[in-house]
Design a protein that fits this description.
By secondary structure, this protein is α+β, with helices and mostly antiparallel strands. It contains 17 helices and 40 strands.
């Protein structure tokens, strides 16, 4: 077996590869840029080598710098992770020439299948059903518009070397095709060093289902069943699961066998993924093949028990697969939630900064018979950089059934503490609790259909709000009793904690009476319903684990004036607990309104102004592009919300702006 391997990547996936290598007794070498000098993958590896400046184009995707690090470390093999150079044929060829083993497929297979245009042509030649589209290279935006019109809107504009939602746009008309072509081309060049674009028909109401394949150098190819990846936002996967709640055994077998046949046709070895779109009648169409490890591979590992990274290393070393197709059964159900540094309350715009608090749930078996796994590349006190992908972690859960896996995920999300940056934990929590998601009736349009106006927080049902109100009342009593025990108070003055309280949350007032004992509290609501609350919480703790009438309730806790900030299942609640008199007076308080920013274009995220598209005095129309801001490898086009005239431009191209900094003002 290899004695030392280099991981040509960073963040979560670098840490993931290091874990398997350590388990196998293999020494690891990390590479890092200026921004990653103190990163977790650097700390975990046996040795680390600096490879350049923070931008990936000056470090992680510079082949010569990776090759120099390999030579310096004496590594025998390289695992590329995903993204960066993982599907770069030139990198694989350079390794072969240097006598270093590439832990991935041979370079001809990368060339054949890693390029989306070439792979579609090969699939068509092999008789595989593919989505209608234009497979040739597209010269400019006008040609893109012409081709899109011929295919018929809507169309998907995609980077040939793309992945992770980068370089992808949906166009519904000529204007969007023209604009999307240029943005896709720019993003592809910045992220992959390859700006080739192709266009295909966008199939509405599809499911995105992919097959994991694994092949060795001895002619053995197997599929490890499917992953459902339909919960996507802007073509970026957010939640994945295995198996799919939609496939039957016959479709699963047909898709798996077709994926294996495709892999054999190009001499594929190592782990790879064949992606399909599946319509409502379970007809499936080849989309592309990713010649690398997928971000969402943990859910497959959880239902099959196979360590895919370990098998990639063993295949690269020349070993045979230790199992056959008949050995690969589906055991239970697995969920994965991608935790992104994106603020869901600001239209999911990137958020950067320091993680002032990062406390993931405990990994391993749970008390309820499930499993929690968290693949991450960050730590408390670390920084989320503007230079790389915004993913913080991949939270995974396993349960014997889909419902059990979802419940495990909901509890894990409720206990996952992240502070200091905007993040999408509330959003994935809301999706997990959504009745449509829980039913399995999902498509790639789920987020667009269920959250058409964006995400403003989940609205909890009345029963859950009642249980939260009862818990807040019990917590408040604990805090009040603690306050009565403060030393140094006036003589002959005793503060008494009353039994009657008014709990207000989400616009509803609950009048409650509380009776406490050593074991907990009985909270009686205005309608006479009595709830027994036991809670493991003391003032100052950031998590409360309670039981209300025997039902578990886990919430994140923050202190606000006169109550608590409580977060769970995607809801972010300000809960006030007041005496009846205080509640009466609170109704008389004036509400402070936010400032009027309607005449300003504000920078929605920390980023770099790439382009200002208007000038002072210009009259702009609703929906007109005003400026482009770059952040986390993505171009964000800011558009006019209404008709107006540009009064002043406060920022120029090249300026680095903070959140809510003014870009331009309107009359």
């Amino acid at each position: 077996m290899f004695k030392k391997i280099l991981i040509a990547n960073r963040g979560e996936i670098a840490c993931r590869v290091i874990k398997s290598a350590q388990k196998m007794g293999i020494k690891t070498v990390a590479v890092y840029s200026d921004a990653d000098r103190n990163a977790l993958h650097v700390k975990m590896a046996d040795e680390a080598i600096h490879i350049g400046a923070s931008p990936a184009a000056q470090s992680y995707i510079v082949i010569d710098k990776i090759m120099a690090a390999i030579k310096e470390s004496g590594a025998e093999a390289v695992h590329p992770g995903y993204g960066f150079l993982s599907e770069n044929m030139n990198f694989a060829a350079a390794l072969e020439q240097a006598g270093v083993v590439f832990i991935g497929p041979p370079s001809p297979a990368i060339e054949a299948m890693g390029d989306k245009i070439t792979s579609k042509k090969l699939a068509q030649e092999a008789g595989v059903s593919t989505v209608p589209g234009h497979m040739g290279l597209i010269a400019d935006a006008e040609e893109a518009v012409k081709i899109a019109s011929q295919i018929g809107y809507p169309v998907m504009i995609k980077a040939s070397a793309g992945g992770g939602g980068k370089g992808m746009r949906i166009a519904w008309n000529d204007a969007e095709a023209r604009e999307g072509f240029q943005s896709s081309k720019n993003e592809a060049a910045a992220s992959f060093g390859d700006d080739r674009i192709f266009i295909e028909k966008f199939v509405t109401q599809p499911r995105h289902i992919e097959i994991q394949v694994l092949a060795d150098k001895h002619g053995n190819t197997v599929y490890l069943h499917e992953r459902e990846c339909s919960i996507q936002r802007r073509n970026q996967k957010v939640i994945e699961e295995a198996p799919s709640p939609f496939l039957d055994e016959a479709t699963r077998k047909a898709m798996g066998e077709q994926a294996c046949a495709l892999a054999r046709a190009v001499g594929y070895t190592s782990a790879g993924t064949v992606e399909f779109i599946v319509d409502g009648a379970r007809n499936f169409y080849f989309l592309e093949m990713n010649t690398r490890l997928q971000v969402e591979h943990p859910v497959t590992e959880l239902i099959t028990g196979v360590d895919l990274v370990e098998q990639m290393i063993r295949v690269a070393y020349g070993e045979k697969l230790p199992f056959q197709q008949s050995d690969l059964k589906i055991n239970g159900w697995a969920m994965e939630s991608r935790l992104y540094a994106e603020d869901p309350y600001r239209n999911f715009l990137p958020s950067i900064g320091r993680l002032t608090r990062y406390r993931p749930p405990v990994e391993g078996p749970t008390d309820t018979g499930g499993i929690v796994r968290n693949d991450t590349g960050v730590f408390e006190g670390g920084e989320i950089s503007m230079f790389y992908d915004p993913m913080i972690a991949k939270l995974c859960t396993w349960g014997p059934t889909r419902a059990a896996a979802i419940e495990e995920m909901q509890v894990a999300l409720d206990t996952f503490e992240v502070e200091g940056i905007g993040h999408n934990l509330p959003f994935v929590g809301a999706v997990m609790a959504h009745p449509r998601f829980q039913s399995g009736n999902i498509t790639t349009a789920f987020i667009a259909e269920e959250y058409p106006e964006g995400f403003q927080g989940a609205v909890l049902d009345d029963d859950t709000l009642t249980r939260i109100a009862a818990t807040a009342a019990a917590m408040n009593r604990v805090a009040e009793i603690r306050r009565t025990r403060i030393s140094g108070t006036m003589d002959n003055h005793e503060r008494r904690v009353g039994d009657d309280w008014v709990v207000s949350l989400q616009g509803i007032e609950h009048q409650v009476k509380i009776a406490a004992d050593h074991a907990g509290s009985t909270v009686t609501m205005a309608d006479g319903r009595a709830l027994r609350v036991t809670a493991d919480w003391t003032p100052g703790q950031s998590l409360v684990r309670a039981e209300v009438d025997g039902t578990p309730l886990v919430m994140k806790v923050g202190k606000i004036s006169g109550g608590f900030r409580l977060r769970m299942r995607g809801a972010d609640l300000k809960v006030h607990v007041r005496t009846p008199r205080q509640a009466e007076l609170a109704k008389l308080m004036l509400e402070k309104l936010p400032p009027d920013t309607s005449k300003f274009l504000l920078c929605p995220m920390p980023g770099l102004v790439a382009k200002i598209m208007v000038e002072v005095g210009d009259e702009v129309q609703e929906g007109q592009a005003l400026a482009t801001v770059e952040a986390m490898k993505m171009e964000n086009i800011l558009k006019a919300e209404r008709k107006g005239t540009v009064k002043a431009i406060k920022a120029a191209a090249g300026a680095s702006l903070k959140v809510d900094e003014v870009i331009m003002e309107f009359e």
